[in-house]
Design brief:
Elements (H helix, E strand, L loop, with lengths): L1 E2 L11 E5 L2 E6 L4 E2 L3 E5 L6 E4 L18 E10 L2 E11 L6 E9 L10 E2 L4 E8 L5 E7 L12 E7 L4 E2 L4 E4 L8 E8 L2 E8 L7 E7 L7 E2 L6 E2 L9 E10 L5 E8 L23 E10 L2 E4 L8 E2 L15 E3 L11 E3 L8 E2 L7 E4 L11 E6 L4 E10 L6 E10 L2 E10 L4 E10 L2 E5 L6 E3 L5 E9 L2 E7 L6 E8 L5 H4 L9 E8 L6 E11 L1
Antiparallel strand pairs: 1-25, 2-3, 3-5, 4-27, 5-6, 7-8, 8-9, 9-10, 11-12, 12-13, 13-14, 13-15, 16-17, 17-18, 18-19, 18-20, 21-22, 22-23, 23-24, 26-41, 27-30, 28-29, 29-41, 30-40, 31-37, 31-41, 32-33, 32-40, 33-34, 34-35, 34-36, 37-38, 38-39
InterPro entries: ConA-like_dom_sf (IPR013320), GH43_C2 (IPR041542), Glyco_hydro_43 (IPR006710), Glyco_hydro_beta-prop_sf (IPR023296), Glycosyl_Hydrlase_43 (IPR051795)
Family: Belongs to the glycosyl hydrolase 43 family.
Protein name: Beta-xylosidase
Length: 537
C-alpha cells in the first residue's frame, strides 16, 4: 500500500510529471527559500528531494515579499528532452488585488543547471504548459487584475507559446468559466483518446476545496463538465481524516495506470474543548500536504478509485519498489559544507550574511540579523512540522552583549504568528537569561521578564533547547547539561500556527520549527548550533 500523505508537512500544489521510469513532483514554497521543491520517485510510493531549482538571488529575489507571497503553484512537465518549470512569484497580497510575476525555467536534468528565468507576463497565476500533439505549446492560466480579482467564478485562459523565441502570442482565448463551485484556478490540460481534459481547482483553498474535470474535442472548447461531479473533494465527508483535498495533477505510468496527486491537510480536532467546537472540522498546523490516489476511466471520464475523498492508504502502483531510505526523523550535526535539504530560509538564500557551516566546523553558525517580524534579512533556518506529535532539540552556544541580541529556537508560521525560546542579555542583571516570546496576530506577549527571569549561569557554555509538540499544544524546555530538562510552565497552542487560525479562509503555508539569531543593535553577534534532532512520536 501507499501511505498518505506521500510528502508530509507543508508541501502544497503538487504538480507531477513522468520522464521514462522516473516521476517528479514540484510543490509550492511561498516565502521559503530555495524556491520550489522537486521530489523524485520510481514507484509513486517512496519519494526523495531531488532539486530546489530557484536557489540563488539571480533565480529568485524575494526580499520584502509578503507572508504567503513568493512561489505559488509551480507546474512541471517533461517534453522534447527538457523539464519545463513554470511558477509565479507573488509580490503583493494585502491590497485591492494581488500581483505576481510568472516565469519559465528549463533543464535537461532535474538536478540542473536550470536556465535563466524567462518572463511569462504578470497577468495571471497557476500557469501550466500544454505540449500539444501537433508540436505547439500553450500557456494556460487563471487571469487576475483590478476587474476580475474578486470574481468568484474566474476564467481559464490559453495563449500559444513559441519555444524558439520564448514569446507568448498576444491572442488570449477564454476556454472555461468554471462551475457553481466557483474560484476556478490551477488549470492542467491533458490529451487522451481524442479529448482535451481540463483539470481545475475550485471551491477555494480551505475545506470546500475540490478538483473539477471537463473535456472537449477542441483545445479552445467548449468544455463539458464531468457528469460525475468533483473528481477530488472531502467537503462531503466532514469526519474524514484528511481534509481540504484539491489542486490536482494527473500522471500515467509506463504500464498504463493513472494516478492523481493533489494537496490535502490532516486536521487536529477539539473533542474535549467545547470553546473550540466552532472550529468545525479542526485546524491544520502541518499545512497543506501532498497525497496521491488511483484513477480509473469510466465512459471516457476519470474517476478516483474508491470515491472522491482523500484516503490514508491506497493500493500501490504496478512498479518495482524503490525505497530511498528516507526517514521521517531528521538529525543534523552540521558536518557538511551546505545546508541539508530539510532546511529552508526565509526569502533570501543562506549566505555569509546569514551564517556559515565552516567558520566553526561541526556547527551551524548564525549571524545576528533582523528579528522574526522582518520581511527582509532574517537569520532563520527552519524545517517543517511533519507530525502532530514530535520533539525537536538543539544545542547552542551564544554570548550576547546587549538586550537587542538573542538566539534560540522558534515555532513559526509567519512574521505575525510565532513563538520563540531564546537566550538574550539582561542589562540590569548583567546576565544571560532564558525567555519566551509569543506573537499572535502581531500582538506580543513576553514571559520570564521583569522579576521572573531564568538566569543562565556564567560558567555554562551551552544551552540545550527542546520543543515537544503534543497534538493541540506544545511546550518548550531547556537544559544546562543535556540530561536534566526543565519544562517552561507556559504552554502554547499548536493550532494557532495553522492556516485556519491565521485567516478565516485559510492562508497558505504551515508550521516550521527553526533556529534563529538576531541582532538589531548591529553590534555583531553569532550563535553556534552544534546539533539538531527532529523525532516523531
Amino acid at each position: 500500500m501507499i501511505s498518505n500523505p506521500i510528502l508530509k508537512g507543508f508541501h502544497p500544489d503538487p504538480s507531477v510529471c513522468r520522464s521514462g521510469e522516473d516521476y517528479y513532483i514540484a510543490t509550492s514554497t511561498f516565502e521559503w527559500f530555495p524556491g520550489v521543491r522537486i521530489f523524485h520517485s520510481k514507484d509513486l510510493k517512496n519519494w526523495r528531494l531531488a532539486a530546489t531549482p530557484l536557489d540563488s538571488v539571480e533565480m529568485l529575489d524575494m526580499r520584502g515579499n509578503p507572508d504567503s507571497g513568493g512561489i505559488w503553484a509551480p507546474n512541471i512537465t517533461y517534453a522534447d528532452g527538457l523539464f519545463w518549470l513554470l511558477y509565479t512569484d507573488v509580490k503583493v497580497i494585502d491590497a485591492p488585488w494581488k500581483n505576481g510575476r510568472n516565469f519559465l525555467v528549463t533543464a535537461e536534468n532535474i538536478e540542473g543547471p536550470w536556465s535563466s528565468p524567462i518572463p511569462m507576463g504578470n497577468g495571471g497565476f497557476d500557469p501550466s504548459l500544454l505540449h500539444n500533439e501537433d508540436g505547439k505549446k500553450y500557456y494556460v492560466y487563471r487571469p487576475w487584475g483590478p476587474r476580475n480579482h474578486s470574481d468568484p467564478y474566474n476564467k481559464i485562459v490559453v495563449q500559444e507559446f513559441d519555444a524558439t523565441t520564448n514569446k507568448l502570442n498576444k491572442k488570449r482565448t477564454n476556454i472555461f468559466e468554471g462551475t457553481d463551485l466557483k474560484y476556478t484556478e490551477a488549470p492542467n490540460i491533458y490529451n487522451k483518446d481524442g479529448y482535451y481534459y481540463l483539470l481545475t481547482a475550485e471551491g477555494g483553498t480551505s475545506f470546500e476545496h475540490s478538483v473539477t474535470v471537463a473535456r472537449s474535442k477542441d483545445l479552445f472548447g467548449p468544455y463539458q463538465v464531468s457528469p460525475h461531479g468533483s473528481l477530488v473533494t472531502t467537503w462531503h465527508k466532514p469526519t474524514n481524516a484528511i481534509q481540504k483535498a484539491g489542486h490536482g495533477a494527473l500522471v500515467e505510468t509506463q504500464n498504463g495506470e493513472w494516478f492523481i496527486t493533489y494537496l490535502a491537510s490532516r486536521p487536529i480536532r477539539f473533542p474535549d474543548r467545547p470553546l473550540l467546537a466552532r472550529r468545525g472540522r479542526g485546524m491544520c498546523p502541518l499545512g497543506r500536504e501532498t497525497v496521491i490516489d488511483r484513477i480509473e476511466w469510466v465512459d471516457g471520464w476519470p474517476l478516483v478509485v474508491g470515491g472522491a475523498h482523500a484516503k490514508l492508504e491506497i493500493p500501490e502502483a504496478n512498479l518495482p519498489e524503490c525505497d530511498w531510505g528516507v526517514s521521517e526523523n531528521f538529525t543534523d550535526n552540521f558536518d557538511n559544507h551546505k545546508l541539508d535539504g530539510n532546511w529552508q530560509t526565509l526569502r533570501i538564500p543562506f549566505s555569509d550574511k546569514l551564517g556559515s557551516l565552516t567558520e566553526n566546523p561541526g556547527h551551524l553558525r548564525l549571524h545576528g540579523n533582523d528579528s522574526l517580524v522582518s520581511l527582509f534579512e532574517q537569520s532563520t533556518v527552519a524545517t517543517r512540522w511533519r507530525h502532530h506529535d514530535f520533539s525537536a532539540q538543539t544545542k547552542m552556544a551564544f554570548s550576547p552583549e546587549n538586550f537587542q541580541q538573542s538566539a534560540g529556537m522558534c515555532c513559526y508560521y509567519n512574521t505575525s504568528n510565532w513563538t520563540y525560546c531564546l537566550v538574550d542579555f539582561d542589562e540590569k542583571l548583567n546576565k544571560r537569561c532564558l525567555r519566551l516570546i509569543q506573537v499572535d496576530h502581531q500582538i506580543a506577549t513576553f514571559h520570564h521578564y521583569d522579576g521572573n527571569e531564568i538566569i543562565v549561569p556564567d560558567e555554562i557554555a551551552h544551552v540545550w533547547m527542546k520543543v515537544d509538540v503534543k497534538g493541540l499544544d506544545y511546550y518548550y524546555s531547556y537544559s544546562f547539561d543535556g540530561k536534566n530538562w526543565v519544562q517552561f510552565e507556559k504552554s502554547f497552542e499548536s493550532w494557532k500556527i495553522s492556516d485556519d487560525y491565521i485567516d478565516g479562509r485559510g492562508f497558505f503555508t504551515g508550521a516550521f520549527v527553526g533556529l534563529h539569531c538576531e541582532d538589531i543593535s548591529s553590534d555583531g553577534c553569532f550563535a553556534d548550533f552544534e546539533s539538531f534532532t527532529y523525532l516523531a512520536k
